[in-house]
């Protein structure tokens, strides 16, 4: 029987602990667990292993950020040393996850960046914790002055 992704909410109603199963995408899997628990904003942190990785880094022009560069891929298994991000809603009020992290390859090479949704399948497992707040709203929208989507927090 294949192990399934799962999560549990603690009695305090603000903490969720869970695990993604083999093949579950890192971001889509966490967002599915958020939907299960009706989470619209919060903080997530996780560790685990990935079959491969897709991420981006910002690019700079004259020392100023000017958007994201090309997607970077690691087409081999990696350890997910740490990933941290914010659960929020996008401009269309769809659930979103802004997630950055560190991975290491078998040879010890460390890479880091902004994970791309749908490009990071779980190898063995990814264990995660979500801290949510029902009093806080997090909305990720494009800021034309900065040239990036940014998260704005409100109560």
From TrEMBL:
Domain PPC: 10-154
Leader sequence residues: none
Example GO molecular function: DNA binding
Top-level taxon of origin: Bacteria
Keyword Aminoacyl-tRNA synthetase in annotation: no
Gene3D superfamilies linked to this entry: Hypothetical protein, similar to alpha- acetolactate decarboxylase, domain 2
Keyword set, alphabetical order: DNA-binding
Pfam families: PCC
PANTHER family named in the record: DNA-BINDING PROTEIN (PTHR34988:SF1), PROTEIN, PUTATIVE-RELATED (PTHR34988)
Protein name: DNA-binding protein
